[in-house]
């Protein structure tokens, strides 16, 4: 049996971070986690472009334009959607996830989902560099692995 898998070497890669600024007190830590992970795996921080958009709802459109440009090996989407008292959360988080999935398949390009979709500020803090890790770093790791595995298929 032949097994195809991707390693975590990021040297030579160009990555775009598409970042929703909403809840920036959390999102800033996701950005740091993503950049640290890229550098720890051999990537050059100068090969990262950060694109800021208002919130998670706007991330897919910017990600689509980035993917269409063909200038980057992957898009890493970062943001934080925190549930409030109305159904708003479901619309914002749902459209963000759906849109990013669509961009990935339409453009045949890796798109990593580093957007927190959480019920509380506590859950967001836990997942942005404290007790439950850093979802920005995890998303970057997935992007690196996907870039490398797709090269081999
Ligand atoms: N409530 C959150 C939002 N809301 C803003 C939307 O993303 C969007 O910018 C607005 O509706 C204008 O189109 N965004 C987040 O990223 N996180 C939230 O918790
Ligand atoms: C995720 C959201 O959009 C949220 O912050 C909105 O809060 P609310 O439902 O209380 O308006």
TrEMBL record:
Keyword Transferase appears in the UniProt entry: yes
GO molecular-function terms, A-Z: 6,7-dimethyl-8-ribityllumazine synthase activity
Cellular compartments per GO CC: cytosol; riboflavin synthase complex
Catalytic activity: (2S)-2-hydroxy-3-oxobutyl phosphate + 5-amino-6-(D-ribitylamino)uracil = 6,7-dimethyl-8-(1-D-ribityl)lumazine + phosphate + 2 H2O + H(+)
GO biological process, one term: riboflavin biosynthetic process
Binding site for (2S)-2-hydroxy-3-oxobutyl phosphate: 85-86, 127
Catalytic site: 88 (proton donor)
SUPFAM superfamilies: Lumazine synthase
InterPro entries reported in the protein's UniProt record: LS, LS/RS, LS/RS_sf
Record keywords, A-Z: Riboflavin biosynthesis, Transferase
UniProt pathway annotation: Cofactor biosynthesis; riboflavin biosynthesis; riboflavin from 2-hydroxy-3-oxobutyl phosphate and 5-amino-6-(D-ribitylamino)uracil: step 1/2
Enzyme superclass (EC): transferase
Assigned protein family: Belongs to the DMRL synthase family.
Quaternary structure (record): Forms an icosahedral capsid composed of 60 subunits, arranged as a dodecamer of pentamers.
Protein name, per record: 6,7-dimethyl-8-ribityllumazine synthase
Gene, per the UniProt record: ribH
């Amino acid at each position: 049996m032949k097994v195809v898998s991707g390693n975590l070497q990021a040297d030579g890669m160009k990555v775009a971070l598409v970042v929703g600024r909403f809840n920036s007190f959390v999102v800033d830590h996701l950005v740091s986690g993503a950049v640290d992970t890229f550098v720890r795996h051999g990537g050059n921080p100068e090969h990262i472009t950060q694109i800021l958009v208002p919130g998670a709802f706007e991330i897919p459109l910017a990600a689509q334009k980035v993917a269409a440009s063909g200038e980057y090996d992957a898009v890493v989407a970062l943001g934080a959607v925190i549930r409030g008292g109305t159904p708003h959360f479901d619309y914002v988080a749902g459209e963000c996830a759906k849109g990013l999935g669509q961009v990935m398949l339409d453009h045949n390009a890796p798109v990593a989902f580093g957007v927190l979709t959480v019920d509380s500020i506590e859950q967001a803090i836990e997942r942005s560099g404290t007790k439950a890790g850093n979802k920005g770093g995890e998303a970057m790791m997935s992007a690196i692995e996907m870039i490398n595995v797709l090269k081999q298929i």
